[in-house]
Amino acid sequence: MDPAHVPYAHKGLMGKLRKKEDPGRVEFDIEGGGPVKMKIEEANIAGFLSEQDNSGYFRYVAPCTFYGSPLPKEEKGEKKKKPPQFMLVFMCVPVSPGKSRVIWAFPRNVGVWLDKVIPRWYYHIGQNAILDSDIYLLHIEERNFAAAGVENWQKAVYVPTSSDNMVIAFRNWFRKHCKSQVGWAAPTIGQLPETPTKDKLMERYWSHVAQCRSCSAALKTMKALEVALQVASVAVVGFLAVAKGTLVTSVVQRAAVVSLAVLCFAASRWLASFIEKNFYFQDYVHAYK
Q1: Closest C-alpha among 81, 55, 79 to residue 69
Q2: Are 92 and 102 spatial neighbours (Cβ–Cβ below 8 Å)?
Q3: How far is the C-alpha of 146 from the C-alpha of 153, rounded, in Å?
Q4: How far is CA 63 from CA 92, 127, 151, 273, in A?
Q5: Where in the chain are the domains?
Q6: pLDDT digits (tens, 9 = 90+) for 157-216
């Protein structure tokens, strides 16, 4: 809920959002972060609305929906040509202590034709990388909150800026209307599960790919292509052995056939690495980005 976290939590994934140094700041951090002025316009049991200084807005709709846009809202009754609109919509549903199901969408009225050209799985690769960069930070933060106590969450974090207002507003809503706890259907002992290894915490196959038709279809196609490339590399080598002295007579021809075999094998290895990183697990270390 803090828009100022983007250059830091997603370091190396979204580029520098601030292109120029702010002369009013003594230091300019290398991530390209900057102050984001926000204020809570309304807050009640149904959620809250936060306005951004550049006319962007974000709204939390209790209990699980959060949406907004960095662009100004379209005024009702306007008959002018519709301006470009872009929204971020997140539905985060707690399913068990320490686990949530995230459903997201990015509706827009510009560049829609790209969706007919670029497959969904290609978009999902980038979106999953962004979520992965959040997951580990949130996992650690959740345990810091638990250690400090749900009523003393402020002691586990530092929230001094106006861009933290939505985090504070949500925590206040959670405390006031939920008594700082989720009403699980089955009684729990209030303890978070042990921290798993990173490959389990940030795995992508069961958390997304298996449930996504586009990604699962792309994975099957790429695996088939990987096998085909390996078979092709072996077949080319076999062809060279059989055709040596008959069809393949010159050094140039033999070099071309060997190069083709090596190229097929190298392509299969690259594809295997691509599949592993984008459909199963890819570590994200903020310090190395």
Answers
A1: 55
A2: yes
A3: 8
A4: 9, 23, 19, 39
A5: 3-195, 216-288
A6: 888 788 888 989 999 999 899 888 887 777 666 678 888 888 888 899 998 999 999 999
